[in-house]
Amino acid sequence: MCTTRLFASPLHCTCSHSNLTRAVAPFGLREEDVHDVLNAFMCTGFTRDSNQYFTKPSPVRVGDYIEFLAETDLLVAASTCPQGDVSVACGTGKAPQCYPLGVQIFQPTAEVLQGWQPSEPVHYNGGHGMNQQQQQQQQ
């Protein structure tokens, strides 16, 4: 996995998670506050036959984008993978292919939001699908 190889070198001790952790630190947040990264434009996975982690060059092209609608105020941090578009394997000493990442924030117009309803709050009890008796047995 790229993180393992990056951490193996004293000169390279960053990964996407590290980038996000550093980005939110000025806001009083710690590593525990950073959720898993969303690899929106990366092609990664595990092979079926050997269960090995793999990466392939990103299929993304200039102009590709994702739209999100925030239903509440957010603190958002973005990171590009230190391995670039993963077309170069970690540990080879070759420079990764990196490309700019653009972020635009828009305020939707009233017309766009016409008929939109906010999501209902989730009343999650922290039980992970277990009933009260099962939860008590886990304690």
Quick overview of this protein structure:
This protein is mainly alpha-helical. Helix content is 16%, strand content 6%.
Question: What does this entry look like structurally?
Answer:
The chain is mainly α and 139 residues long. Helices cover 16% and strands 6% of the residues. The chain has helices at residues 2-7, 16-24, 132-138, and strands at residues 43-46, 53-56. The protein has a two-stranded antiparallel sheet. Strand 1 and strand 2 form a beta hairpin. The longest helix is centred in the first third of the chain and has 9 residues, at 16-24. The model has no long low-confidence stretch (mean pLDDT 82).
Fraction of residues in H or I helices: 10-25%
- Residue runs with pLDDT of under 50 for 5 or more positions: none
In oligomeric terms, what are we looking at? Answer: single chain
- Report the mean per-residue pLDDT as an integer: 82
- Helices, by number, come to 3
**Rg of Cα set:** 20 Å
The CA-CA distance between the termini, in Å, is 34 Å
Strand content: 5-15%
Widest sheet: strand order? 1-2
